[in-house]
Amino acid sequence: MNGKIILIFCLALSLTNPVCAGYRELKTEYDSYRPPAYFVDRSRPGPEPEQPVADRKFRAQQERLEEMKRGWEEALDIEGNEAGFLVPAPELVELFKPVQTDADAAADAIKGSYSLEQLEILTLLRNPGVKAAKDRLRASLEAFTQVSVLDEILRKYTAFTEDIQPGIGPMKGREPIEFKFPFPGVLALKGEIVQREVSAMSERLEIARRDAVTAIRKAYWELLYTTKAIGITVKLLELLKHLDQVAKSRYEAGKTSYQDVIKVGIKLETLEEDLKTLQEERLNWNSRIRESLNLPPDVKLGMPQFRAAAVKVPRLDNLYGMAQQHRQELGFLQERISKTALMIEMAETMILPDFTLNLSLYEDEAVNQVGSFAQQNTFPIKTKASRGAGLPKMPWYGIEDAYLRETRQKLQALKEELKKEEASTNTMVRDAWFKLDRARREIALYDDDVVQLSESALDVSTSGYVVGDVSFADVIGSYDTWLRANLALARKQSDCGIAWARLEQVVGTTIRLKGNRRFKRYEYDENNTR
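The structure assignment produced for this chain is given below.
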């Protein structure tokens, strides 16, 4: 009897032990349960659920893209772009900022005497071409947000449509592996591609700024020459009027013929007509300035402040390296090459086999292929058209491969175009340097010798004509020589300023010479200048 009781007790104990063990597992799973992120009530306090690794990487990439976008937005400010073609003084930029949207304030800034620096800042703030390039750059910044939109939509769609199986333990849903791979690599490549595109648009903005500043500099130097030419012509008119009085006095005294009086009158009429032409030409250059500053035609401009052209010329061999480093066209082509290479890399990542076939990747889903709850067959029961005998798994692979070959050829063409532009840059640097050097030499020639000799000849011939020792033809010739010499000196001074502006345009940055505060970036000592 006792043996039977012991046998029944052991049998009962063996039956209840699995039940107790199952209850403990059930309690542990119940206590450790955390609902998915999309079921969590954010309004209630409590610990934040831990996000999956893929979600954390996705959010990190999104934050990185937003950070890149903010950095470019800050660089759009003139004073913040330290690597730009022209970096004006921050205090001047702050002083003239109201003119960006106020045409009356811009007109007031140049209604009196104005300097070249004022025109440069006003151009950077108001030029329509610069504003258009800046708007295009802002538009390209929106691509940083767009690159992750499709991935975000797919992830949200997956979150709301995944197969949830209620039961004991964490209700972890199924997220297809194709939504995770090749993320985050492709999303990062998208961000780099956008970065290269934005960098290219930034180079376009610098090109617009550079060309606009160069155009306003040329207009300033041409306006300065025209103003000087008007002054020189007016002075010669006064001298000719004095000569006309002398000729009339000599004619009345019978010491010369009436032809001298007629020749002086003809010269006076000709110079007065030249003076009108110069005055109209000055109005044309004023119109060019108004165009660059986006001002209406009824705005009256003041007089440009006199500025001496730089007489030092930098060494030519130093300029080649500067141009290769800073010229915006070269930077634009380099960004396009980088963008195309990244596009090829992304296409290869998405459609070409990698070093691994990713056979270890598996989808996060319950294995319900057997039993009464089976949802799919253990083995395929039919053959797809793309898996037939001798057929490829991806029948459209050839089209994608042709696209890759096309893009690779475009990349090679861009590289050759960059080489051509680099060689062309060296030639343009040589031409611009030659014009600057020639203008500098001609300024020294006219300023030191020709102008002084013409003034001496004018004084001697005028005095000699009064006493009758010099013929009238020699007197008129000395007046013409004086006029041509002074106009040539003024022309060469403006040509020197224009040549320097052109040289900086080709180099792509501002050049600085020792002892000259105007040029701001690169310094040369006396041994490095000519």
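Interim note for the steering committee: The two ends are 126 Å apart (CA to CA). The chain is about 65% helix and 0% strand.
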